[in-house]
Design brief:
single chain, 6-stranded parallel beta sheet, 9 strands, binds adenosine monophosphate, 3-stranded antiparallel beta sheet
């Protein structure tokens, strides 16, 4: 596995893959890798001769400097996991190279970035869309793989790639979970043991929503069931329940006619430096 710390190095590595006639799949990450990231790598490996990964804790998508500072960084373990998974090259860039001095160009999906989580975290999806565009331009892959766990992010990136005619496929991968149902996340390591145990409430609430949907319950009662389940866990602070139409993220109301997506944001830990967990599930009537 080639470990590249500059744009010119990763470009040289990928030029070598292209010269051999190989296709390239890309997996972008912020490091602190776990089995969820590896599911993306495996999907990329199945479809492409070469897999390129990136590890970059992108400063422009963090609103709170404390959240950025406390984001876990585990580079040695990450490199070992990527090597074991058969990744061909990894880019670990310096923020100063990704964001050249006095840069002024941003990418923003104007509607999708400013609903739901985008309202709670202003500028977050602009930071994501901008850095993902840069990483696409640097690596020029045939396809890029993203987790469905970050549901709004996946929709933002699909829309951006479509609108800007980016010549690659965007592939969504189902959420990988711990045995008790907690969605794997780099943030989980910041939970205390008690909060880690309590955090199973997110997936339990989503399971409950599917059960209610199967009984033909209207969407406002599904919303109520989600809130009741999460509020019953004293360690959890519910920040958002969003029930939306899958691709447009427009609010879903009334009786379910087809699949709907539920997106949850729940906080744990100290209120001055909380751990924000998200989870999502598409449920069917
Ligand atoms: P992150 O390092 O958190 O920015 O995540 C990098 C990529 O991995 C994103 O596309 C995430 O959606 C995806 N990802 C993170 N956690 C999971 C998971 N539990 N299952 C599947 N994909 C995931």
């Amino acid at each position: 596995m080639q470990v590249c710390r500059s744009i010119s190095d990763i470009r040289a590595a990928i030029a070598g893959f292209r010269a051999a006639g190989d296709t390239v799949g890309l997996v972008t990450t912020m490091g602190a890798l776990h089995a969820g990231h590896m599911a993306l790598v495996m999907a990329a490996k199945t479809a492409h001769a070469r897999v390129v990964a990136t590890i970059f804790v992108n400063p422009t998508q963090f609103g709170d400097p404390k959240d950025l500072a406390s984001y876990p960084r585990t580079e040695d373990a990450d490199l070992a996991m990527l090597r074991d998974a058969g990744v061909d090259a990894v880019l670990i860039p310096d923020a100063r190279e990704i964001y050249p001095e006095s840069d002024e160009t941003i990418v923003e999906t104007t509607r999708l970035a400013n609903v739901l989580h985008g309202l709670v975290r202003p500028g977050h999806y602009r930071g994501v869309a901008t850095v993902v565009t840069k990483l696409f331009n640097i690596t020029q892959p045939d396809a890029a793989y993203f987790g469905e766990k970050d549901y709004q992010q996946l929709q933002v990136i699909k829309r951006m790639a479509r609108d800007l005619h980016m010549p690659l496929d965007i592939v969504g991968i189902p959420t990988v979970r711990e045995p008790d149902g907690l969605a794997m996340s780099s943030r989980n390591v910041r939970l205390t043991e008690d909060d880690r145990n309590a955090a199973v409430v997110l997936s339990r609430a989503l399971d409950k929503a599917q059960t209610e949907a199967g009984r033909g319950v209207p969407i406002d009662r599904i919303d109520q069931a989600l809130r009741t389940t999460i509020n019953a866990e004293p360690r959890a602070r519910l920040r958002a329940v969003d029930i939306v139409e899958p691709a447009t993220l427009a609010p879903a109301t009334g009786l379910m006619k087809g699949p709907i997506a539920i997106m949850l944001s729940v906080e744990f830990g100290p209120s001055d430096n909380p751990v924000m967990l998200i989870d999502q599930r598409e449920i069917t009537p």
